[in-house]
Specification:
Largest sheet: 6 strands, parallel
Number of helices: 10
Distance between the termini: 21 Å
Strand content: 5-15%
Shape: elongated
Radius of gyration: 19 Å
Strand order of the largest sheet: 2-1-3-4-5-7
Structural class: alpha/beta
Length: 221
C-alpha cells in the first residue's frame, strides 16, 4: 500500500511497483485517517508511507499504530524530511526502512522487494550534506573535521566491528568508542553506523574500500 499526499507521486509509484511480478498493490491513501481505514480493509503486508502527511506530533504514533496495531504491517517511510532525531525515533520504533525522496526508483523497489522474505531488513538512505569549506594550513578542506581517533573508530566500524571489538583494537574503553561514534554522528548528520560510513566514504574522509563491508551489510530487524 502507498500512502502519500502527492497524488501524482502516489499513483506513479503504484503503477510502477505493480509491474513487479512479486508485488501486488492493494490500496493507496492520501490522509492519515484514510490510511488506517484502507489498511483495515486490505490488510497489506507492507505500507510505504510519507509521515509528512500527518502533523509532526502524530508521526511516531501513526507509525507505531501501523507496526503494532490490528492488523499490523511492515513500514517503509519515504519522505523529504531529513531530521536525524525523527529518523532515529522511527527506526527505534521498528520501521523497516527510511528513504529520502531524492532516491531513485531502483532503490525504493529494492527496499520493497527486500520485505518479501520472512527475515526483514532496515534500509536508511538520506542525502549527503556537505558543510562549508574550512581554511587549513594545507589549503581548503571539504566536509566536517573528524579527529584522527574518530577516523580510526569509523574505519573499524566500516569493517563491521562491534563497539567492544573496536575498543580492544584501539586499547580504549567501550564507552569511549560510543562517545566517539556519537560525535561522528553529530558531525556527519548521520542516524546510524551505516549512514555515517557511507557519508564519510562519499566525502572521502575514509577510503571507500574501508566501507565495503558495511555497504553490503543488511541489518536484521
Amino acid at each position: 500500500m502507498i500512502a502519500d499526499e502527492q497524488r501524482l507521486l502516489r499513483e506513479s509509484l503504484c503503477a510502477l511497483l505493480d509491474t513487479d511480478p512479486g508485488i501486488d498493490i492493494v490500496g493507496q491513501a492520501s490522509q492519515g485517517a484514510e490510511l488506517l481505514t484502507v489498511i483495515a480493509r486490505t490488510r497489506p503486508d507492507l505500507v510505504v508511507v510519507d509521515v509528512q502527511m500527518v502533523p509532526a506530533d502524530d508521526r511516531e504514533a501513526l507509525v507505531s499504530r501501523l507496526l503494532h496495531g490490528v492488523p499490523a504491517c511492515r513500514v517503509l517511510v519515504l519522505s523529504m524530511l531529513e531530521q536525524p532525531r525523527l529518523v532515529q525515533g522511527l527506526l527505534d520504533l521498528g520501521i523497516h526502512g527510511y528513504l529520502h525522496k531524492s532516491v531513485g526508483y531502483g532503490t525504493l523497489a529494492d527496499a520493497v522487494r527486500g520485505q518479501r522474505s520472512a527475515l526483514s531488513y532496515q534500509t536508511v538512505t538520506l542525502p549527503l550534506r556537505r558543510t562549508p569549506p574550512r581554511a587549513t594550513r594545507g589549503g581548503p578542506a571539504l566536509g566536517p573535521e573528524l579527529s584522527a581517533r574518530e577516523l580510526e573508530v569509523l574505519t573499524h566500524a566500516a569493517a563491521a566491528l562491534s563497539n567492544r571489538q573496536i575498543a580492544v583494537q584501539l586499547g580504549i574503553a567501550e564507552g569511549t568508542v560510543k562517545r566517539h561514534l556519537s560525535n561522528i554522528f553529530d558531525k556527519l548528520n548521520a542516524v546510524s553506523r551505516l549512514d555515517a560510513v557511507n557519508k564519510a566514504a562519499s566525502m572521502r574522509l575514509i577510503h571507500p574500500a574501508d566501507a565495503g563491508t558495511v555497504r553490503r551489510l543488511r541489518v536484521a530487524t
